[in-house]
Amino acid sequence: MSSVSDHYSQLLAPVYAWMSGSAEVALDAGKTELDELNLNLPAGALVVDLGAGFGMHAIPLARAGLRVLAVDSSTELLTQLDRLGSGLNIESVADDLLSFRSHLKEKAAAVFCMGDTLTHLPEHTHVDFLVQEVHEALAPGGHFVLSFRDYSEPLEGDARFIPVRSDERRILTCFLEYEEDTVVVHDILHERAGDAWETRVSSYRKLRLAADRVIASLETAGFEARREPGVRGMVRVIGRKP
Q1: Are residues 96 and 134 in the same domain?
Q2: Is the Cβ–Cβ distance between 55 and 84 less than 8 Å?
Q3: pLDDT tens string 108-166
Q4: 60 and 180 together in one domain
Q5: CATH number of the domain that residue 38 is part of
Q6: Is residue 97 packed enough to be buried (19+ CB in 10 Å), middle (13-18) or exposed (0-12)?
Q7: Tell me: the pLDDT tens digits for 210-232?
Q8: Does residue 51 sit in the same domain as residue 167?
Q9: pTM
Q10: How many domains does the chain have?
Q11: Which residue range(s) make up the domain with 51?
Q12: Which of 17, 72, 128, 226 is deepest in the core (most CB within 10 A)?
C-alpha cells in the first residue's frame, strides 16, 4: 500500500494530464467549472488552490486576474503547472495541504480544494482541521469551494471496476475495495512498450466522505454551507465565511 504522495510520484503524476484528456482539455474544463461558480472575485485578489496538480483550476484563476497560491505535494505536477502557467501570477508550493496557512501573508478571498483532493486526507479529523484552517485563512465574505467523490455508499460487484481512460498507448483502470472509513483505490496502468504491454499497479486509501458530513464540519467552523451538483460525478460543497 502506497502513501498518497508515493502513489502519485510512482504512477499517477506522469499520466495525470493524459487522464484528463490533455492539459488543454482540462484547463478548459476547469475554467468552465469556475465560471459556473460565479463568485465575482475582484481582480488582484488572493486565492488558494489546494491540491492544485498541474493547474486545472489555478491557471484559469490566474488568467482571470487573480493571485494564486497553488499547493500540492507532487513536485512533478507542480513542475507541469509552472510550465503551463508560465508568466502568470501563480506561486507554487510543494507541501502538505494542511500546512497551507504557513505560506500565506494575508487573508484570502477564496480557497479551492477540488478534484477529489479532500478524500486524500488520512482521517476525518483532518478534514475538520482543514476546514478550521481555511476559516481562519479567509477574509470575511470569502468562499471555500470543495469538490469530491462521495464514497459513503459502496459500489458492488463489477461496478467496482472503473475504466478511467484508454487509447492506443495506455489503458488505466481502477478497482475500489471498501473498508469501514476508507476505500482502497487500486490503479492499474497498462502502457505500450514497442510490441509489448507493460503493467504497473499501485494502491492507496481515500476517505469515504459524505456530503452531509462535510457540510456539518463547515457549519461547525462557522461557515454558511450549501451543496450543489458537481461535475464528473463529484459532489460540490461551498462554504461562505460571514
Answers
A1: yes
A2: yes
A3: 999 999 999 999 999 999 999 999 999 999 999 999 999 999 999 999 999 999 999 99
A4: no
A5: 3.40.50.150
A6: buried
A7: 999 999 999 999 999 999 988 88
A8: no
A9: 0.95
A10: 2
A11: 4-150+210-240
A12: 72
- Region 27-44 average pLDDT: 95
> Closest by alpha carbon to 113, among 241, 242, 234, 229?
234
C-alpha cell at 43: 481582480
- Tell me what the pLDDT averaged over the chain comes to: 95
**Are 16 and 123 contained in the same domain?**
yes
Residues 65 and 176 in one domain: no
